[in-house]
Design the sequence.
């Protein structure tokens, strides 16, 4: 819902750029079409919900089992103490970053194509963060003490240690979730008011949405404040895109472990986060566009732009991989050299390492081609490969670094147990369930913002 | 309560386009109306100028909120880790300023974001469940595709008959009054 103050920029469409909005729908048609999913009774939705609910139940069951029996159920050992839980945590939190990037950063850059995809991306951020936040808590071993991270005057007389990266992590995620939620909700308010005012949607629904619409009535004084506040929130959320994953990377970089102890980690993690997040946006957007027939509001232009962003991030990541290895070699530490040049490429997890390189390094090169970039099926498959690759990247960083540290006598292999797998698959189910509920109960294309975009395009006399 | 509400409209006119609304608002302002309001499904670039709205001080409030939050975040770390329960880690300074930076930043952003939302809602007198304008027949079109202009209570030029005539001259789709005032 970005209503960026828009000076009438001369923005001539070229043959390279397909339009951001197809056809000339009226405002009323847009309202009807964009709110239609709230009334749909698609069977496919129920089937997917059943699948996702199954995954969620699996997640709950595995969590309860872990709470009751302890994390000895997992494959974690010493030295591989982090393993799946932290891999999943970093993977999920990375996925969340693209949502904020698309909704906040592109708003500040006045990129019009963000209008119809930003809410989906923001919702993805929130749900990914929910998943991300669960894993460190589960990993605590005694998760009922998670609140010890909050500085409250306790009878124990001690405080959290703020020189440690872990309280930073806690605060970064808390801030990120809160700001993302506020941003998302603020964007929703005018659309909730639109639902409140549509008689054919039924009285109960109108009352509930009306409550959440906060009495919004679209007055000029409200819009004025709204635009300023929304722009400020975007400005505040943008540094969070950079800071949250930087803080996560410090969990690693502040240790002395070869493979972790590197100053390149913050930007490297941010690039990886955005990369996996763009891939997740594509994974969600492409089926959605097809199922709900949204080709006129999510056009080839959106796919094309997302493809380009993914390619650019892919190259930043490739550069990071290369530089990380170069630093290890150039730094001259035998342990660093061994980790990067021997253990990763030829060690026990080498197969996963090379799959990761193929997924993250080779897949995006397809996107150099305009034809492939605008092909939904190619983009969809590439996005799945990238996400798998990014999960493997975190696995390699964590497990392949921990399992061979300084002393060969303490080396030990890691293998996940079925509980580890259950938690990973279950968290995918939970994510899908939350996302499906979002599609069903929230207008997932910002109605008011698309109307605003249409109005601007019409005023500029562009072929809209 | 509704009698004292400065946002209570006394007469409204509905228009079919944003341009017609802006033109009408500009015209009424020229005629001497001072307490006007427009309602639209999306923000209109010309509306603030047509109504001569002052620019809100919201960004300054947000800056203050953010700085206050950052100061609080810093103070909590410094007090707990360097004063109330000092812990000497390898002889390093107790006030480990570089280590306090990430949390100071995060809490500052958090406070600024919460302030931004409050600074939007509180002066706008939101949330509220009911407003006199919701009693106007057909006003629900404002969140769909219509644009409404209102003369608010207490306008110096408002006169039931004259205002109606002047609004009719602007060729609106319809003219309405909130039931509570008739």
Sequence:
């Amino acid at each position: 819902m970005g209503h960026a103050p828009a000076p009438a920029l001369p923005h001539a469409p070229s043959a390279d750029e397909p339009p951001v909005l197809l056809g000339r729908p009226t405002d009323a048609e847009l309202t009807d079409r964009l709110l239609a999913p709230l009334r749909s009774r698609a069977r496919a939705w129920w089937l997917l919900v059943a699948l996702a609910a199954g995954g969620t139940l699996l997640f709950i069951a595995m969590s309860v089992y872990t709470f009751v029996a302890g994390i000895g159920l997992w494959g974690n050992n010493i030295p591989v103490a982090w393993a799946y839980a932290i891999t999943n945590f970093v993977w999920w939190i990375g996925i969340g970053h693209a949502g904020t990037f698309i909704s906040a950063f592109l708003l500040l850059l006045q990129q019009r194509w963000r209008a119809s995809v930003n809410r989906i991306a923001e919702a993805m951020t929130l749900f990914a963060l929910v998943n991300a936040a669960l894993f460190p808590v589960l990993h605590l071993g005694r998760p009922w003490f998670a609140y010890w991270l909050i500085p409250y005057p306790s009878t124990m007389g001690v405080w959290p240690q703020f020189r440690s990266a872990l309280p930073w992590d806690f605060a970064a995620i808390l801030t990120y979730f809160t700001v993302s939620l506020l941003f998302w909700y603020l964007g929703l308010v005018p659309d909730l008011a639109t639902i409140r005012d549509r008689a054919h949607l039924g009285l109960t629904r109108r009352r509930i949405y009306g409550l959440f619409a906060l009495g919004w009535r679209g007055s000029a004084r409200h819009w004025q404040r709204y635009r300023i506040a929304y722009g400020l929130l975007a400005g505040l959320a943008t540094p969070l895109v950079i800071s949250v994953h930087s803080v996560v990377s410090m969990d690693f970089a502040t240790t002395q472990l070869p493979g972790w102890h590197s100053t390149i980690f913050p930007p490297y993690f941010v690039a990886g986060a955005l990369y996996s997040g763009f891939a997740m946006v594509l994974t969600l957007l492409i089926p959605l566009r097809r199922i709900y027939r949204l080709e006129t509001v999510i056009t080839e232009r959106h796919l094309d732009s997302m493809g380009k962003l993914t390619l650019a991030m892919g190259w930043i990541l490739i550069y990071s991989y290369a530089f990380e290895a170069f630093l290890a070699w150039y730094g001259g530490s035998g342990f660093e050299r061994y980790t990067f040049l021997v253990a990763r490429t030829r060690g026990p997890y080498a197969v996963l390492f090379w799959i990761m390189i193929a997924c993250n390094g080779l897949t995006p090169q397809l996107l150099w081609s305009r034809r492939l970039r605008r092909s939904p099926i190619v983009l969809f498959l590439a996005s799945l490969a990238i996400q798998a690759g990014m999960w493997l990247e975190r696995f390699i960083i964590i497990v392949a670094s921990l399992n061979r540290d300084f002393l060969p006598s303490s080396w030990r292999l890691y293998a996940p147990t079925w509980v580890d797998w259950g938690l990973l698959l279950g968290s995918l189910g939970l994510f899908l369930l939350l996302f499906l509920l979002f599609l069903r109960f929230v207008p997932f294309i910002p109605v008011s913002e698309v109307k605003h975009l249409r109005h601007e395009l019409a005023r500029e006399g562009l072929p809209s | 309560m509704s009698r004292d509400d400065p946002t209570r409209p006394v007469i409204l006119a509905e228009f079919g386009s944003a341009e017609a609304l802006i033109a009408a608002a500009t015209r009424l302002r020229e005629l001497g109306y001072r307490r006007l309001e427009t309602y639209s499904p999306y923000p209109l670039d010309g509306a603030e100028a047509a109504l001569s709205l002052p620019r809100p001080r919201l960004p300054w409030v947000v800056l203050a909120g953010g700085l206050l939050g950052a100061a609080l975040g810093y103070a909590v770390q410094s007090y707990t880790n360097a004063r109330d329960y000092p812990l000497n880690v390898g002889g390093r300074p107790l006030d480990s300023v570089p280590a306090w930076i990430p949390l100071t930043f995060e809490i500052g952003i958090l406070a600024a974001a919460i302030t931004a939302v409050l600074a939007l809602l509180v002066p706008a007198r939101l949330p509220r469940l009911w407003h006199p304008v919701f009693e106007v027949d057909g006003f629900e079109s404002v969140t769909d595709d219509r644009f409404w202009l209102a003369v608010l209570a207490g306008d110096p030029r408002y006169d039931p008959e004259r205002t109606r005539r002047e609004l009719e001259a602007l060729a609106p789709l319809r003219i309405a009054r909130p039931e509570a005032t008739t």
